[in-house]
Structures are given as C-alpha cells and as structure tokens.
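re the bet — no i am not wrong, look at it urself. input seq straight from the record:
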Amino acid sequence: MQDVLITFYNFAKAMHIVSVIAWMAGLFYLPRLFVYHVEVVGTGNETDTLFQTMERRLLKAIMNPAMISTWIFGLVLVLTPGIVGWDMVWPWTKGLSVIAMTWFHMWLAARRKEFVAGTNTLTGRRYRVMNEVPTLLMLVIVFSVIYKF
C-alpha cells in the first residue's frame, strides 16, 4: 500500500490542488450570490427562482464534488509515508482549518435551504462578513503548508 501511495503522490498532490481551487472558488462565490439575493432580488419572483437555481447548481455540481475530492486527495497525501511530521504544528493547524472550511461549507448549504424555504433572515452585510471566513482559513492553510512551523 505504501508503494502505491508513493507512486501516485504527485498525481494526488496535483488533484488535491485542483480540487482546492474549485472548492475555494465556490466558497468565495456562493456568499456573494447570497448578498445579491438578499439586497437586490427579494423573494417570490422569477429572479428569486433563478438565483435559487444558480445557488443550488454551484453547491451541488461544483462545491460538493470539489470538497469531497479535496478531502479524498488530502487524506491520500496525509497517508503517504514521509510527508507529514505529526510532531510539528503545521499539520494540526491545516487540519483544523480544513475542518473549519468544511463547517463553513455546511453553513452555506444550510443558508441556501433557508432561501428555498423563504426563511432567510440574514442581511447582505452579514453575508459579506462571512465571505471573509474562507479567506482567513485559506491564509492559515497556505502559510502552514509553506512554512511548516
């Protein structure tokens, strides 16, 4: 098993990076759609239906598969011998940040369901503030991996 992981390490790393890019794009864009949905669109009209369709497709067709593949290829990298030194801080900060990013993803999915039900109570300002969460987590992850502190 270790030989297979070592052989496919570069492939797994490349796929992990591609998956993260797709996931991050969705994590940045969905809250922005929510801002426009709240501030411009309103509820119960044709544009509301259009926004709900865009939000659903972004979440289901791009973000969910990207999150799953990020986790799969990330775990393959973690399991590859000699890659992660668990006695260091960086794998723990990265791991906790990825868990927080996953929580944020689920939080967005729950907000989408509120738009569908017509029960959203959050403001555009709140969505703008929450849109900074993936940026902060991304910074922790990238600096953790690059500097390996």
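see?? The chain has a mean pLDDT of 96. told u. also Helices lie at 2-7, 9-41, 46-79, 90-117, 124-130, 133-147. so pay up
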